[in-house]
Model the fold of this input.
Amino acid sequence: MKPTRRQFLGIMGFALGSATLFTTAGIAPQPKPLLRPPGAKNENSFLSTCLRCQQCITVCPEQSLRTANILDGFTATGTPVLSKGCTLCLDCVKHCPSGALDKNITVENVKIGIAEVIEEECVGCDRCVPACPFGAILPWKEKKLVKIDQAKCKGCFLCVTACP
Done:
């Protein structure tokens, strides 16, 4: 049976209203925090400032950025997300027309995030150690794992890209 236009609009209105109610009431699961390009403002400022112009994604020589989709959260849709290793060339920052990425950022003060070792999944291959350009990952031979020096880690994601 094919729904009428009125039925279709009613169903869509109900779905949209329910989604809004669940989201604002805190019932819907919140999406996990997204890794943003270097120099990104705090998430609320970033979301309100980013034009979703995709220039940062287009100029990234490493193709480290992707466009956030609806599964990343409704308000984040269309914004840049770090999806693989970033060499911190800062081309994305230079080409951001909106100011969502701080033009005063330098490689020394970039902090995208901090790497974490998932002990149950780490096989101790140490491939991440040479992949880190900041020397933030150290072998931990006693446990056949690696340790993260949080002071040195920039959150560039290069270790994750190297991890089998």
